[in-house]
What does this fold into?
Amino acid sequence: MKTSKKLLALTAALLMIICLCACNSEKTQEDETATVHFDTVDEAYEAMTAAVKEGNYSDAVKYYYSGAVESDNGDTLNWYYYSKALDDYENDGCIGYPLDLLQNMIGDDFEGADEMISELQTIARYFDGVYYGGEGYFLYFSEGKIAVSIETELTGDVICDGELLYIDDEYYWAVHNVNGDDDIQYKIIITDTGLTIETAEKMDSTATEYVGDYTYYQGELPILYYSF
It folds into this structure.
């Protein structure tokens, strides 16, 4: 891993101790930052890595904040971000945020990361592209992130407006919230000509602004990123 990447990962980890990113309509920051007692840092680290290997990603995140965060093992942050990404994906259906973590916060040679990146990208690429419709809206889907503009095409680097979720074989549009629960607003349906956006009523959403039919558009796809 490059030095700049290590510094970025360490800085992000310290920030996330204070303000974790949640991606679930039920899970809260308090749940994620709950800790358990370990006698030593090494014990917490071993528990974290064991939990990841067993597929208990929520527990792994908890053990990180229960002492593993203080470990001087070079892979500590890799294990943490991997468990965080898999927890958001497998338990909450998130695509954009886990993919962002796996691509930007984990070492290139960390075992399992490439396989998960490929799995998430396979889902995201069903949607990647530009769409036009509704009330003159352009929709941009890239790597599980979503951006919107009105009658003006986006270019360059753009802060995303939402992210793609995959829950119970259905696709949703959610607004990511760094201070609490994500807001699942729309259901996304793939059509022969593009996408249909519907209010996600079964998620208790009343959002209607972007509801409508959208067709594929031959436009430039900007680089979408999160603002946190």
Summary: The longest strand covers residues 183-190. Residues 1-31 have pLDDT under 50 and may be disordered. The two ends are 22 Å apart (CA to CA).
